[in-house]
Structure formats: C-alpha cells, structure tokens
Specification:
By secondary structure, this protein is of the alpha/beta class. Among the domains are: 97 residues, no CATH class; 122 residues. The protein contains 17 helices and 10 strands. Strands 1, 2, 3, 4 and 5 form a 5-stranded mixed sheet that branches. A 5-stranded mixed sheet has the order 8-7-6-9-10, with helices on both faces. Strand 1 and strand 2 form a beta hairpin. Helix 3 crosses helix 4, helix 4 crosses helix 17 and helix 12 packs antiparallel against helix 13. It is elongated.
Length: 410
C-alpha cells in the first residue's frame, strides 16, 4: 500500500506520513511531518513566525494490524515576530504535551464499559495511573452530555412514566435512589439516601423533577417514595410495582409450605421442599413434567392448593383486567382470600387492602419496574468489579455510563 493511501486511511489532519518502519518488537513507528512550514501565532493569529528548531517525540496511537503504533512527530519551536513570544507547534490529534493521541484516549474510555480500569489498561498495555486519569477526564466530559441528553428526552416525552427504586451501597447501611425514565429506558438521576427528607433536600433532584410531567410513577410500597411522588408529581397516578406486589402472595405461599411441612410425613415433606421453586412459577409457563409434580404436591395439602390457585388468580387479574373493573375484581379477590381463613394469607392481604388503589392503578398504565431491577443488577455487578469506588462522583459517572450507554451520542 502506498504512503498516500495509508495517510488517507489513518486520516490525520494537517500532517503527512513520510515513513513507516518494519515491525520492531511488536511495534510500528510512523514518521509524520506537518503539511505547512509555519503555524499562526496563538496570540495574534499572525503567520509571521520563525522556526527555532525541532526535536522528535513519540506518541502512542491506536494499534495498527495488532501492532503497537507509535507516531514519530516533530516537536517544533516557533516564535512570533510581532509579539516576540515562543510557542510550540500544535497538532489537532494531540492535546497539549500528551504522549497519547486523542483517538487512543477515546478508545481507552470506551473499553471501561462493562470492565475495570485495571483490565482496560492491561489490554492496551499502559500504566494504570495514566489510564485512570484518561478515563476520569473522559467521563467528566462524556457523562454530563449523556445526562443532559436523557433529561431533555424525558422532558419532551409524551406520556412520560417515571420509575423510582433504591439500590444498596452497603446493604443494611447506606442506599441510593434511582430516578428512571421507563418510557425511554434511561437512568435520569441518582439521589443519595432513600428517605423523604433526603430526597426533598436534594436541590439538583428537585430541579430535574420540576421539568418533568409524568402521567404515572411506578415504585414499590415504600412510604417515603409515595410521599415524594405526591409532592413533586401531584397530577401523576402512583402505581405499586406488579412484581413487588406478587411477592407478598408468593411469600405467603412459601410460609404456608414451611408450616405444613413440619407436620407431614418425611417423604411428602421432602417432595415439597425439593420442588418448592415450581410453586413460585406461573402455571402456564410450567413444562408437562413440572405440572405432574405440581399436582402431586397440591394433592398433599388442600390449603397449599387453595393458596397456589389464589396466587394464579392474582396473575390472571393482572393479565386480563382493565381499568374499569380492576378495583372491583381486586376487592373480590381479597374477599376470596379472606374466606380461606389461612393466617399467612390474611397477613399478606393486609398489604393489598392498604394499597388497593395503587395496585389497581396498574391497569391505567401497564408499566413495571422490571427494567429498573435490571439496571440495579448492572450497578451491583459494577460495584463488585470495582470493589466499590470511594470517589462518589466517579462512582456515579460509572453508573450513568453503564446504564445509559445506548444514549452515547456526543
């Protein structure tokens, strides 16, 4: 390949390739020269400059055909005749006195998605501290642009739906709250803490939510989140997340299973315990052999069978009810549950009675926090990979990049 073809392929501005070396210890040296003989003064923009000499410097670039690519670039000193100041030749593909091209830094920053700084620097064979510095600088520019983009998209979205959920920094001790755009599948903001006072005193969060006009807010049954949603989104309907609600009746089913197993013969108790996961599955998703096992378990205990089919009735209510009859049918389901007179079920039904409006609101806007839980899993994986991050801003930037990487149009 001719040099001018390689020059077009690499596409450097204002320079030309004059020489490419043979591979030396897995490295290729590309010698560059400026196209012009002079460069304007940065102060007066005058072309009346004098070249005072030059020396070469080595710049790391993107790998070429699996070889480390090193650019041999002349470092030219110039002086301005008008202002009598000295300055160095500026190349568009290098920032300041850096020993790495801008393209190389961007490549390094992109490899951090789903990885760690240590892994990224090891792959590209650069010092850890250098890679960490480049990544932090890139994130400080890229992530605010991403967040501005997703916030603007949310504010302009029709029938916006917001999801609110917490995730642990240290389980049982410290938590953060995520504000999510369920309509556009994006993480809008991370707030410190999960109490009502902490959320309302976060000025940046309050500024963000003042620009949003959602039709619905999906969350679990935490009082602090419902009070917060009432305050900042007074005209939005509040929806109790479907999968959090299902968990109450499923937990009641398993509590009953544990209680009756204590009085059953050993063989029957063992059968129920070994196949307990089948009880939590939807009946219409069971395989034929799983249905056979299920029928055997339900034949062991009438109460177990009654609660299992009560759980299936709730799934049917979620799937087939509509906003005009949802509340009435939910009340009938609650009444049916009470008629069983099973302590575990009665305990679970108290939650359904207290939150019946928020539960039935699901049929006005069929959104759940399933995508939010997926992002929470991403965040947990990030924290495990990084052994947590002591710098909170770096921690937030990494989370935003991990969760909103699809919105990376900067």
């Amino acid at each position: 390949m001719h040099l001018h073809d390689i020059n077009n392929l690499i596409n450097f501005q204002d320079v030309k390739i004059v020489k490419i070396s043979e591979p030396i210890q897995n490295k290729v040296y590309i010698t560059l020269e400026p196209l012009e003989s002079h460069q304007p003064c940065p102060s007066c923009n005058s072309m009346h400059t004098i070249r005072r000499g030059s020396k070469t410097k080595i710049i790391r670039h993107l790998d070429l055909w699996e070889y480390q690519t090193l650019l041999v670039v002349p470092s030219i000193r110039l002086s301005c005749k008008s202002y009598h100041i000295n300055f160095s030749w500026v190349y568009s593909f290098i920032t300041g006195k850096s020993r790495y091209t801008n393209a190389f830094k961007d490549k390094l920053a992109k490899t951090i998605d789903g990885s760690t700084v240590k892994h990224a620097t090891r792959i590209l064979n650069i010092p850890y501290t250098t890679g960490e510095r480049f990544i932090k600088n890139n994130l400080s520019i890229t992530v605010p642009c991403i967040q501005d983009q997703v916030a603007k998209q949310a504010s302009q979205s029709e029938r916006l739906v917001i999801g609110i959920d917490d995730f642990a920094i240290r389980k049982g001790h410290s938590y953060n709250t995520g504000i999510h755009d369920l309509r556009n599948n994006a993480l809008l903001y991370i707030a410190k803490g999960r109490k009502y006072e902490q959320l309302t005193q976060d000025n940046q969060l309050m500024t963000l939510v003042s620009k949003l006009q959602p039709v619905a807010v999906v969350m679990d049954l935490a009082k602090s989140y419902h009070n917060f949603a009432k305050k900042v989104f007074p005209y939005a309907i509040r929806i109790a997340d479907r999968f959090h609600i299902n968990r109450y009746i499923t937990d009641a089913l398993h509590d009953l299973r544990k209680r009756i197993s204590k009085v059953l013969p050993t063989k029957q108790a063992k059968t129920i315990k070994e196949n307990k996961n089948i009880l939590g599955k939807r009946f219409d998703s069971l395989k034929p052999y799983e249905k056979d096992i299920l029928y055997k378990m339900l034949d062991i205990s009438d109460n177990l069978a009654k609660v299992y089919w009560l759980k299936e009735d709730l799934i049917t209510w979620y799937d087939y009810s509509h906003k005009f009859n949802a509340l009435h049918l939910l009340d009938k389901w609650i009444h049916k549950g009470h008629s069983l007179d099973i302590p575990e079920v009665n305990k679970a039904l108290k939650t359904f009675e207290n939150w019946r409006i928020e539960i039935s609101n699901y049929h006005y806007c069929r959104f759940t926090n399933a995508s939010v839980e997926g992002r929470n899993n991403k965040i947990k994986a990030l924290q495990r990979r990084s052994y947590f991050l002591r710098n909170r801003q770096s921690h937030e930037y990494r989370i935003y990049l991990e969760c909103n990487c699809e919105a990376l149009v900067v």
